[in-house]
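User: If you would, consider this record:
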Amino acid sequence: MNSVLFDSQGRLRSGWRFAIFAAVFIVVVTLAVSFAQGIFLALRFEPRENILVLTTVTTSVSLAVALVLGWGAGKILEDLPFKALGASFTKGWAWDLFWGLVLGAAAVSVAAGFAALFGNLGFTFNAEASLALIFQSAAISFVVFFFGAAFEEALVRGYIFQTFVRSKLAWLAILLTSLIFASGHLDNPSSGTFSFVNTFLAGIWLGFAYLKTRTLWLAFGLHLAWNFVLGSFYGIEVSGLTQLAQHPFLQEIDGGPEWITGGAYGLEGGFACTFALVVATLGVWFAPFLKADEEMVALTSPPEESPDEHDQNPERQRRA
């Protein structure tokens, strides 16, 4: 029984750590989100009347829960500091965020370009809205996408991903979290097999981003830029949703075919997205300018497999 519960170092196995975190998260986030929405109801504000407010409230509260529980699980189950979660302002965080934003915008532009070149996807300037309204909409949608991307990365590429990596199960971390990530979008409007596969590939892309840098900043930047540029600039559905960017800079003209352009689900439901994600994943993994800080490698690697120089790190000595 001990070998089922604990590893050779006497630590609770990663599968059990994942199960504990997931169970606690589901309970706590349900209560926290319900409480937050209850406050709005008590103030006679109905969040269901505004999907942007409801989405932001839900994701911001969920983000806080994911970070607190991620830190708590790391501290209690693995004796790790908050820094190990990869959400702190560690050395190089701004560099990783910058390249995440740049590469995320480039990736979605590759998808849009592919759909325009090999499909019948076109764009026109949004003449139905004034520039003031477009910029106002962009600012609002940026906040919505910011908290949405931050929450999903803190949860999916946060503790549940990282605890498997520390158990030398990076391949399982990528497959499991990509499956969770894709399954979380199944209820979106117009979702289907193609959109599920693409969201799974997006999970691999973002998982590689974490493994390359050992923080959440690159993955967060990629995720945020992809959603924001897709919805607020190109005016394309974001995972089937149209309400998140109500007055985009451009308006799409989707002439199909659906298997390339994605149809009503947006680019993420077609092969143009598949192509872009494969290119983007290879680009992130082989980019020479994306590197992990040694301290973060020490905090996020299996203790016995860290390079010798990392053994001088006080956090590593404490964990070992």
Notes: The CA atoms of residues 31 and 44 lie 20 Å apart. Strands lie at 121-125, 250-254. The two ends are 24 Å apart (CA to CA). The chain has a mean pLDDT of 89.
